[in-house]
Amino acid sequence: MSKITKKVGSYPYANVMFSIVSALFMIGLMGLFGLYANKLTTELQDSIEVQVVLQKFLSEEKRNDLQNRISNLEFVNQNIPIRFVSREEAAQNMIQETGEDFIEFLGGNPLHDVFRISIKKDFLEEPRIEELSKDLKKIEGVYDVIYTKSMISQIQSNIQKVTIVLGGLAIMFLLTVVVLIGNAIRLALFSQRFLIRSMQLVGATPFFIKKPFLSRAFLQGVFGGIIASTLLGLSIFLFSEVFSEMKLIFDMRITLSVFISIILLGGIIGFLSAYFSVNHYLKMKLDQLY
Predict the structure, then answer these.
(1) Residue 260: CB atoms within 10 Å
(2) Cα–Cα distance for residue pair 78/209, rounded to 1 Å
(3) Where do the TM regions start and end (predicted)?
């Protein structure tokens, strides 16, 4: 019995590991792409601003009260502070951009003070943003509300398309990974089918037979995930050296979450693949093994 158990689970290692690492690297790459795309989408949505134009000559006290009132509205993104742009600052910015002193030409500054507010992404749909624009205009002290309707609609439309495409690709890649790892372990266990039958004939329990296969497959999946994570990390480093813009969007939390996920995924898929494969051979009749 001891000589037999030493061989149990010792199926070909290199081919299985290559398949596991390749599959997990692929799904990890897809995961990184999807999560970073989501991060960029969130940043893009946060950059959309609505300008609340104030009535002229509001006292500082009334302006502060107005800012507090607006900041407490349900559609205002609390994570991004309201930015106040005075009419003087706006005038200077316009003069710098155009190179012309329109104040001297007009004999005064026609601009208004402005609050620039960020809207929660749930309210960035065109009907809802029109509704909140009307609500803002009703507030005492507000002169007008300005936002770029066409840009918001275009951004939301593009985000929906990207989400659908990435979601479809993620499902496809995940299924591919499960099939690749499952087939690799199933083929490896095929070479052990007679050994499994020998264990049955000498009275070994199903659990005793499964245990070495399950532990080995789980460890192979985990080690495969570690190797795939290392390769992904090296790829990120090399790409960031070539394309310096990648350093601007790099997020350690996103990257680590993907690494941990593919390590766990490798272990789980390896374990389940071995479990179902060994069960399959345990239930086969002797003539079916040939």
Answers:
(1) 12
(2) 58
(3) 12-37, 164-189, 217-239, 254-276
Which tokens sit at 106? 């007009």
- The count of other CB atoms within 10 Å of the CB of residue 164 is 10
Sign of CA dihedral 177, 179, 182, 185: negative
Nearest to 117 by CA among 151, 137, 146, 138: 146
Round to whole Å and give the CA distance between 283 and 263. 31
Q: In what order do the strands lie in the sheet with 142-146?
A: 83-85, 114-118, 49-54, 142-146
Are residues 114 and 90 in contact, defined by beta-carbon separation less than 8 angstroms? yes
Residue 115 phi, psi dihedral angles, 5° rounding: -100, 130
Domain positions in the chain are: 2-43+155-289, 49-146
Helix (H, G, I), strand (E, B) or coil at 7: helix
Q: What confidence tens digit (pLDDT) does each residue in 86-127 have?
A: 888 888 888 888 878 777 777 777 888 899 998 888 888 777
Local structure of 39: helix, strand or coil: helix
At 72, is the secondary structure helix, strand, or coil? coil
Q: What is the DSSP letter of 55?
A: P
Please check whether the domain covering 49-146 is classified as CATH 3.10.25.10.
Answer: no
- Rounded distance between C-alpha atoms, residue 21 and residue 30, angstroms: 14
CA 125 to chain centre: 22
| pLDDT tens, position by position, 139-155 | 889 999 988 776 777 77
**What is the C-alpha separation between 107 and 109, in angstroms, rounded?**
7
CA-nearest of 111, 121, 109 to 43 is 121
